# Entry
Amino acid sequence: MGELTELARSSGDTVSYCPGCGAALGEAAFVQEFWSGADRHFLCWCAACELMCTVVIGALVGTEPEH
# Structure
């Protein structure tokens, strides 16, 4: 497990583009990284399309307000 953690730290990968509309996640956007077990999660909010979602390695978990 230590190797996985070290690999993730050294990769420097982060979410740079909105998974919904493809806009660059710049200064107006919000990206917060957190860990759940061995998985890296990125909570993202896109200012362009107002999508809020959690990006997990290889998966997208979206949240949508009730209508």
User: Anything to note?
Assistant: The radius of gyration is 13 Å.
